[in-house]
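Structure (tokenized):
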């Protein structure tokens, strides 16, 4: 396993989330709360699901227990959500930056929100966290477009280009 790869993904995740936040900032709260097509039926609910999931995984990776349902909406107002999202992204970067290659192979014991115990390798958890973000961020992207926002260029390759990884 390569810790540098996950460090890059943590920064990409923050970069992409910042683009989503900027697009959301152009909308009124009523637009963020309006019913939209996706698994979580509004921009607010989809964004909250992402942040709830991230806070759960960060807690699990630290050996902590956090009890939240995956459809909780602890940040119903965009400005509160934005502050929590920015803090969580920084927290995730700090956590990943503190991991060595050897740490990625360690087994993490945790319980799901339903209380089911699991043991999973750290690298699998991190892969899931970043994949989960991409999955639901894509749904938010579609919801933003349905609200009249322009399409976002938030694929990993655009991040790589912006960071000078491409030649």
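Design, position by position:
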């Amino acid at each position: 396993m390569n810790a540098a790869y996950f460090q890059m993904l943590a920064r990409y995740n923050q970069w992409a989330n910042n683009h989503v936040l900027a697009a959301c900032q152009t909308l009124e709260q009523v637009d963020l709360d309006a019913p939209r097509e996706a698994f979580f039926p509004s921009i607010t609910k989809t964004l909250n699901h992402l942040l709830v999931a991230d806070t759960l995984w960060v807690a699990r990776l630290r050996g902590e227990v956090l009890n939240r349902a995956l459809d909780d909406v602890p940040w119903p107002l965009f400005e509160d959500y934005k502050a929590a999202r920015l803090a969580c992204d920084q927290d995730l970067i700090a956590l990943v930056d503190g991991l060595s290659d050897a740490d990625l192979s360690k087994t993490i014991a945790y319980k799901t929100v339903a209380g089911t115990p699991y043991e999973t390798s750290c690298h699998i958890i991190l892969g899931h966290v970043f994949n989960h973000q991409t999955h639901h961020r894509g749904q938010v992207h579609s919801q933003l477009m349905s609200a009249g926002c322009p399409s976002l260029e938030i694929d990993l390759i655009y991040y790589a280009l912006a960071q000078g990884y491409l030649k």
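Reviewer-requested clarification: Residues 5 and 61 are 17 Å apart (CA to CA). The chain has six helices and two strands.
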